[in-house]
Amino acid sequence: MTPVKLNVYISYTGADRKAVETLRDWLYPMRDEVNVWFNDPPKPPKPLPLPWELIASVLPVFRPRDYRKDYAKVDRRRKERAHIYLFMTSYSSLNDGQVDNDITLAVDRRIEGDMLSPQIYPVILAPSMWKDRSRLARFEPIGPKKSLSEFKPADEGYLAITQQLSKVITDMQRSLDEAKYAQSRLKSQSAEALPAGAGPYLGDEDELLEFRAPAQMNPPEWLGWMIIFLLFLSFARGMQRDKPEPTISSHVQNAKTWQPEYERKHPPVQPRVDVPMRPVE
Fold first, then answer.
1. In degrees rounded to 5, what are phi and psi of residue 7?
2. Can you give the C-alpha Rg of the chain in angstroms?
3. CA atoms of 212 and 191, how far apart (whole Å)
4. Strand-strand pairing, 34-38 and 6-11
5. Residue 246, CB half-sphere, CA atoms under 13 Å: how many?
6. Where are the alpha helices (H) located in the chain, listed in sequence order?
7. Side-chain half-sphere exposure of 163, counting CA atoms within 13 A
8. Most CB within 10 Å of its CB: which of 32, 112, 230, 241?
9. What number does CATH give the domain 6-50+66-206?
10. What is the DSSP letter of 34?
11. Using omega within 30 degrees of 0 as the cis cutoff, is the peptide bond preceding 153 cis?
12. Alpha-carbon span 68 to 84, nearest angstrom
């Protein structure tokens, strides 16, 4: 039986992006045991050069695809299948509507006292009124007692977070492996399986949580102008083919109705006709 790989989802506001990337790097050595996710949508496609914009207006297949909507669906599934939620808490995150929505989703999935239920941990980045203004106040933060901004150097704070989180991951993974083994026994005995969403996520739909946007092609501008020239040339030739071509019968008919006249050295003379004289009465 394949061990369950835990999913860690980090919720944050845009101003705290650098701290999220630093925490991801600290958790990278545990990549075989956990997936570390956070909202990281692909960039919008770059505008096309002028000739390719003209081509795309006629042939939309040349217009690059925007994958942000596809990523949003994957990001939503990741949130719904996370085992551990880390909320980067600062004065900026208290006013972020997306972070508030993530808190609602995590709290709705959590069952108090159940180790298989998703775990919620605030990560204190900077001093704020999160104890008074945030619904995360009833959850114990992970990491040091002080905020990360108060640590000099900050690596000591990230080290404390990583160590505590590693212990949580180890304990939770053991419980999830036992639950997965029990569920496999039920299936082998032809018992009714648990309905979807009734239990913890045990890694049944990992392929739906992957996202890899293809690299955007940047065709050279000169190639676009060449294609436009070839299309114009093809259109011009097509217009010439639409004109009726002369047929053999028309040539024969024209030959019968018109003959060229050549200058002769000795032109023919009309023969003289003698008219008999009538006698005068």
1. -110, 120
2. 41
3. 37
4. parallel
5. 7
6. 17-27, 50-58, 68-80, 97-109, 130-133, 155-188, 221-241, 248-257
7. 8
8. 230
9. 3.40.50.10140
10. E
11. yes
12. 25
* Chain Cα centroid distance, residue 203: 23
Q: What is the pLDDT averaged over residues 167-193?
A: 76
- The structure tokens listed for 39 are 């909202």
pTM: 0.71
CA distance 40 to 211: 11
Of 86, 88, 90, 85, nearest to 130 by C-alpha is 90
Token pair recorded at residue 100: 């508030």
Residue 192 CB neighbours (<10 A): 7
Q: Tokens 């996520």 map to which residue?
A: 201
Q: Which helix (H) or strand (E) holds 85?
A: strand 84-89
How far apart, in whole angstroms, are the C-alpha atoms of residue 209 and residue 200? 16
Q: Hey, what are 98's tokens?
A: 């997306």
Residue found under tokens 């995360």: 136
At 242, the pLDDT band (50, 70, 90 cuts) reads low
Q: What's the pLDDT tens digit per position in 255-267? A: 555 556 666 666 6
Which residue do the tokens 């997936």 mark?
35
CA atoms within 13 A on the CB side of 93: 31
Q: What whole-number distance in Å separates Cα of residue 14 and Cα of residue 40? A: 10
